[in-house]
Structures are given as C-alpha cells and as structure tokens.
Amino acid sequence: xxxxxxxxxxxxxxxxxxxxxxxxxxxxxxxxxxxxxxxxxxxxxxxxxxxxxxxxxxxxxxxxxxxxxxxxxxxxxxxxxxxxxxxxxxxxxxxxxxxxxxxxxxxxxxxxxxxxxxxxxxxxxxxxxxxxxxxxxxxxxxxxxxxxxxxxxxxxxxxxxxxxxxxxxxxxxxxxxxxxxxxxxxxxxxxxxxxxxxxxxxxxxxxxxxxxxxxxxxxxxxxxxxxxxx
Length: 230
Prior knowledge:
InterPro entries: cNMP-bd_dom (IPR000595), cNMP-bd_dom_sf (IPR018490), Env_Response_Regulators (IPR050397), HTH_CRP (IPR012318), RmlC-like_jellyroll (IPR014710), WH-like_DNA-bd_sf (IPR036388), WH_DNA-bd_sf (IPR036390). Keywords: DNA-binding, Transcription, Transcription regulation. This protein is of the alpha+beta class. The chain has helices at residues 4-11, 15-18, 22-30, 86-91, 112-119, 122-148, 151-163, 181-188, 192-204, 220-227, and strands spanning 33-37, 42-44, 53-58, 61-66, 72-78, 83-84, 98-101, 105-110, 176-177, 208-211, 214-217. It has a 4-stranded antiparallel sheet with strand order 1-8-3-6.
C-alpha cells in the first residue's frame, strides 16, 4: 500500500483531482476504503444498486456492456488516477455498465454517506458537475464518431484518445499503447478483421507500429491528420 504522500502525488497526476482543494483531496483519500480485485473480477455490474464513488489507484478497469447475443462492447478503459461512479450517486438509478479488472486493481471507495457529506462542499460539488460534464462530452464524441466518421478516422481518433489516457485526457502523450487488437475492435464496435486491415494500412503510412499486444504510435502528427480525415 502506498504511503499517503505517494498516493496523493500519484492521484494528483489526474487533472480533475489536482484541481480540488488540498483539504478536499485529503478528505477523499483518508476517508475512503481500499478494495482490491484480481484480473477478470468485477468491481460492479450493470443493474447494481448505487454504491461507492471510486478512485483508481492501481491497474486498469474495463467499462463494458453485453448485447443480447452475448457480444461484448468495451466503452472505455479507466486508468490510474481516474475517479468515476458519480452518476448513480447523483440520480439514484442502477449502474449502467459492467466494470471489471483488466489487471490487478486497487481502488479507493468513497461510501455514499461520505460522498453526500463531500457534496456539501461547494468546491467538490462544482468539481463533480465538471466530472459529469467531461464524461458526457466523451460519450457524445464517441456517438458522433460512430455516426459521422469513417472507420479510419474513428480508429485514429480513438488511438489519439488512448495516447492521452482515454478518459484521463492527460496533457502528456504516450507512444506505446498496451491494448490488443481484439480489445480495440470491441471499443470501436467493428470486426477484428476490419481493424487489422486499417491498422496495416496506417502502419504502411508510418503512423503506427504493430506489436503483439501493443499499438505503438510512430508519428502522432500523422495519426492526428488521419483523425481529421486528412
């Protein structure tokens, strides 16, 4: 388990958490309980009653849904520093998606009563409104992409998002994305074969390098051009 100073520094790498007042940051971390998951275990399932507000301390969590035919759609992957789960706490409705551990995971869980107490702090309440708006914007962007963008543009835009931590929207870019083509295809709602053909073409144009279990970004400029349809 990380010492408090290390934990605070790690979580503050997330822009949303870093923008909170120091006393609110401390209250969130000190009053939360630790929950650990092994790979494949569920943090929550679609239809679950509202529970905790979560902060991801270690590992990665997959947010997904299953269709009537059993086909899985991956909506996003939460990485270290992300806070989530506010929607059901705000509207009192059941959880909308499954959330399971991709790797070994550790989360901080803020219980509903503690979340309500934090919401009495105007700064925290405004931050939750901003977090909800950020999550909503991402959903609308994905919906817009699925309806209006070409397959290549959708792939390039999602890789660009993943380079910034997907939901984290980090200012720092990374060039090695530890994601399988199967998972990326499920994120985009396309077949593995369609994705493979597009990635091969993008690699031929020098935008990406394909490795086992990875997509490496060779040129972010070329990737962004593809994401813009250029």
